[in-house]
UniProtKB/TrEMBL annotation:
Gene3D superfamilies named among the record's database cross-references: Tetratricopeptide repeat domain (1.25.40.10)
Phylogenetic classification of the source organism: Eukaryota, Metazoa, Chordata, Tunicata, Ascidiacea
The name this protein goes by in its record: Uncharacterized protein
Cited InterPro entries: TPR-like_helical_dom_sf
Origin: domain of life: Eukaryota
Chain residue ranges for the region called Disordered: 24-55
Species annotation: Clavelina lepadiformis (Light-bulb sea squirt)
């Protein structure tokens, strides 16, 4: 199947997500647009795919542990799904493994989660009718239903498969780009998860390292585009760290975000709305760790950047500017 993510498409997607990230960075909201896009022909093919239909049927369950997880009652969900797991493989064992993995992540049982993830991959990939694209489509459906952690799991499985799939006998640039698309989909979703600090450190940071390693293997991405994609990744990572309350780690990631934009865009960096968002978030982080002088310095830079940045509307600029100026006043009051 021809599933291609060319430079122009990747550029449009990167710019779209950066625009969303810049607008939403101040209050931590995340966009959830699809990263990977299919052609019309591929969408038609997928809608009639028997393999995908089978995969969806396997997970079409109204199950009590899922209801508990939807309400954030992960320990109770863990207790239920652990008993189901002990019953052993059955026709619906894959969704049991999926729910077990999610409950283990949310309750910080990481060693067991790694084992269950491996079991799930073995169970699913033993079906030769299922391709990486079937897993991407399933992950898309899970995301649209609001099952974010489950969709993250299946995007990662798809990405793992794509890195080993061959086209005409060789691992191609197309497969690498497709794999990158699934990794970016995970990146986009991770910022929406209220997972623990330990889970952030275990999964988010390692995921971002995989994305950066993967980017370095795709040789034809222009430098400016590469920096924008990396900046997206840093934005989502710092939002996860903010949720986890790990402000020192968030500071480090924000500084990397500023650096990568400067490196890739040069003098145009401060005219990009994400640049001002990074500085604004960095200023707020400095206030949280009692560094008001540093906060005032970077917030002054944020205000200057926001005033000259390219926004879709003046209303968006005014909103971002008002938030940065309020934060600056707070920092100055703390000195």
């Amino acid at each position: 199947m021809n599933f291609e993510l060319d430079d122009n498409l990747l550029a449009m997607l990167a710019l779209h997500h950066i625009a969303q990230a810049g607008r939403q960075a101040a209050d931590g909201r995340e966009g959830s647009s699809r990263i990977t896009e299919l052609t019309d022909d591929e969408n038609k093919a997928n809608s009639t795919s028997e393999a995908t239909s089978e995969l969806e049927k396997m997970f079409d369950l109204d199950e009590k542990s899922s209801c508990y997880m939807a309400k954030g009652r992960y320990e109770e969900a863990y207790g239920i799904v652990k008993k189901q797991y002990k019953l052993g493989p059955s026709i619906n064992f894959a969704p049991v493994l999926t729910r077990y993995f999610v409950s283990l992540v949310h309750t910080d049982r990481f060693e067991k989660a790694d084992k269950i993830r491996s079991e799930l991959i073995s169970a699913l990939t033993s079906n030769n009718d299922l391709s990486s694209q079937d897993f991407v489509k399933h992950a898309d459906n899970l995301r649209m239903k609001g099952s974010s952690m489950e969709s993250i799991l299946f995007y990662q499985i798809a990405s793992d498969l794509l890195e080993t799939e061959t086209l005409s006998g060789d691992i191609t640039e197309t497969a690498q780009r497709c794999s990158l698309g699934t990794k970016l989909a995970v990146t986009n979703l991770l910022g929406t998860q209220g997972i623990s600090k330990n889970a952030i450190k275990r999964f988010v940071i390692s995921h971002m390292q995989k994305v950066n390693d993967h980017l370095s293997r795709i040789k034809s991405i222009p430098k400016a585009l590469l920096c924008l994609v990396r900046a997206i990744c840093y934005h989502h990572t710092e939002q996860c760290l903010l949720q986890a309350g790990d402000f020192k780690a968030q500071e480090s990631v924000l500084l990397k975000g500023v650096e990568v934009l400067r490196d890739g865009l040069g003098s145009k960096a401060e005219k990009h709305e994400l640049y001002g968002a990074f500085l604004n978030n960095l200023g707020n982080t400095y206030m949280k760790i009692n560094r008001p002088r540093d906060a005032a310095r970077v917030l002054n830079e944020a205000v200057a950047s926001i005033k000259k940045a390219n926004y879709d509307t003046e209303l968006e600029r005014a909103d971002c500017l008002a938030k940065a100026e309020r934060a600056l006043l707070s920092a100055q009051a703390m000195i």
